[in-house]
Amino acid sequence: MALANEELSTKQLLEAQAHVWNHIFNFINSMSLKCAIELGILDIIYKHGRPMTLSELVDALPNISKTKTQHVHRLMRILLHSKFIEVNISNEEEEHYWLTPASRLLLKDAPMTVAPLVQLILDPILTEPWHHLSEWLANDHHQSPFETTHGMLFWECAKHEPRLVSLMNEATSSDSRLVTRVLLENHKIAQIFEGIESLVDVGGGSGTMAKAIVDAFPGMKCVVLDLPNVMAGLQETNNLTYVEGDMFQTIPPADGILLKWVLHDWDDEHCVKILKKCKEAILGKGGKVIIIDIVLDIYEGGDKAMEDQLLFDMMLMTLLNGKERSEKEWAKLFLDAGFTSYKITPALGVRSLIELYP
Q1: Which of the residue ranges 28-37, 171-180, 328-337 would you say has the lowest mean pLDDT?
Q2: Other Cβ atoms closer than 10 A to 13
Q3: 305 neighbors 349 (Cβ within 8 angstroms)
Q4: Residues carrying an active site annotation
Q5: Residue 320: closest CA among 272, 273, 275, 261
Q6: pTM for the structure as a whole
Q7: Whether the Cβ atoms of residue 241 and residue 270 lie closer than 8 Å to each other
Q8: In this protein, which residues make up the domain named O-methyltransferase C-terminal (predicted)?
Q9: Nearest-CA neighbor of 245 among 288, 277, 292, 217?
Q10: pLDDT band at 6 (very low <50, low <70, confident <90, very high)
Q11: What is the CATH number of domain 25-105?
């Protein structure tokens, strides 16, 4: 077994060095992407309506001096490598920048934009706890690294940081648009909502997902349950209402209870409490809980999707004391909460659709 560097071949040594360097410097990809979003580079290219040269891009960037032209070129080069930009070569052999499918998900005004999530996750308040991860692991307490760093829970901190709340609401709303499009355009998956006359979207925020569901199923009545600070100023309709409340206290009765990206925020004890409240709220024998969340090792999309699942899990451990769960761990939660059966459908890339029956 090779333990020392001198016992590695030169090829192994260089490959190992490249692998380590890639992980050391990988944060630069994230920060470069954040920079491009803050400068509006992707939106400028999109609004231009056709591929842009470097000089055209620099001219269009507000507050960027021409002296920074080569620096912008270096930024674009890393965005090209990470597949957020593609390059077309003109007859004059000049590079023209254009968008990729991934960068279209980062446009400011795109309905399914992921840009707020980029800005949220890379905000200094959320990145600082990662510097204290080893310190946290070495201490025997139940606080999250976030709480160890900032002296308060993430949700308490958010109350004092309206910017974070705004980014979080925007991120969850745009994600809900993406999820509902995938769900409703696939007829087999959309059938999960058929026969449900009433639905409660627990932690549904501004009601983006609920609105899309009732538009697709106009005979359904939908209630969005969330905290008072989230519900302010929202417009109700005939089949969509908003209820201020706490999911740990009570959930309005309905045929279906929807939990999208809720349970992974919480430890097992809190999850069982939420699920028990959901079970109490289900009307009739045909009712069910619909969960949209990650099931570890069940995904569509290959190694990238698996890595995304593991990264999400580390993020939840660091920021919220939450976790992603395997099917075995999910099944234990369901059993502890008094449910009898469940069905998992891997239909949302990294995430799965879980139907849970009393």
Answers
A1: 171-180
A2: 13
A3: yes
A4: 264
A5: 261
A6: 0.89
A7: no
A8: 130-339
A9: 277
A10: low
A11: 1.10.10.10
Where does the chain hold its CATH 1.10.10.10 domain(s)?
A: 25-105
Residue by residue, DSSP assigns 38-94 as HHTHHHHHHHH-S-B-HHHHHHHSTT--GGGHHHHHHHHHHHHHTTSEEEEE-TT--
- Least confident residue range of 49-58, 187-196, 264-273: 187-196
Residue-wise pLDDT tens digits, 99-117: 999 999 999 999 889 999 9
The conformation of residue 26, written as its DSSP 8-state character, comes to T
b/e sequence 290-299, b meaning 16+ C-beta within 10 Å:
bbbbbbbebb
Neighbours of 28 (CB within 10 A): 11
Q: What residue spans in the chain does CATH classification 3.40.50.150 cover?
A: 114-357
CA distance 191 to 183: 9
Written as six digits, the tokens of 114 are 């992921």
78: left (phi over 0), alpha (psi -120 to 50) or beta: alpha
Four-residue CA torsion sign, 123, 325, 256, 334: negative
176 phi, psi to nearest 5 deg: -65, -35
Average pLDDT over residues 281-290: 90
| pLDDT-based confidence at residue 48 (cuts at 50, 70, 90) | very high
Nearest CA-CA partner of 225 in 208, 240, 247, 209: 247
> Torsions phi, psi of 205, nearest 5?
60, -125
How remote is the C-alpha of 256 from its chain's centroid? 23
C-alpha to C-alpha distance for 298 and 329, rounded to whole angstroms: 13
Q: Does domain 114-357 have CATH number 3.40.50.150?
A: yes
Residue 77's CB is within 10 A of a number of other CB atoms, namely 14
Mean pLDDT of 235-264: 93
- H helix intervals, 101-254: 101-104, 115-121, 124-127, 133-137, 145-150, 154-160, 162-185, 187-190, 208-216, 228-231
In terms of DSSP H, where are the helices of 234-339?
A: 268-281, 302-319, 327-336
